Amino acid sequence: MYKVIHYRNKCIGCGVCYEQQPELWRMSKKDGKATLVKGVGKKDVYILNITNAEIEKTQEVAEACPVRIIRVQ
Ligand code: SF4
User: Fold this and answer.
1) pLDDT tens per residue, the chain (73 residues)?
2) 3-state secondary structure of 60
3) For the chain, which domains are there?
4) Greatest alpha-carbon span in the chain
5) Coil, strand, or helix at residue 28?
6) Whose CA is nearest to atom 1 of ligand 1?
7) Residues flanking ligand 1, CB < 6 Å
8) Cα atoms found within 13 Å of the Cα of residue 43, Cβ hemisphere only
9) How far from chain centre, in Å, is Cα 18?
10) How far apart are CA 41 and CA 66, in angstroms?
11) 5 partner at 20 to 30 Å CA-CA among 20, 29, 57, 62?
12) Quick check: pTM over 0.90?
């Protein structure tokens, strides 16, 4: 099982993850940061299990994040 981990506190709100993968990401109207849809977490670290079909795209998004706060493992 693969999962995506988002270290949200360091998000700069650039919107790249949302532009590339809107099914997994939203931009918060409250603080302008990205939110991992259905992600579960605390202390600004959010985790979501992803399907095999989502792995490749999510890895691309992780590499595109300018501050490298998205991990797939
Ligand atoms: S690509 Fe990275 S820095 Fe940009 S909004 Fe998404 S998580 Fe935040």
Assistant:
1) 899 999 999 999 999 999 999 999 999 999 999 999 999 998 899 999 999 999 999 999 999 999 999 999 9
2) helix
3) 2-72 (3.30.70.20)
4) 32
5) coil
6) 65
7) 11-17, 34, 65-67, 69-70
8) 0
9) 8
10) 22
11) 29
12) yes
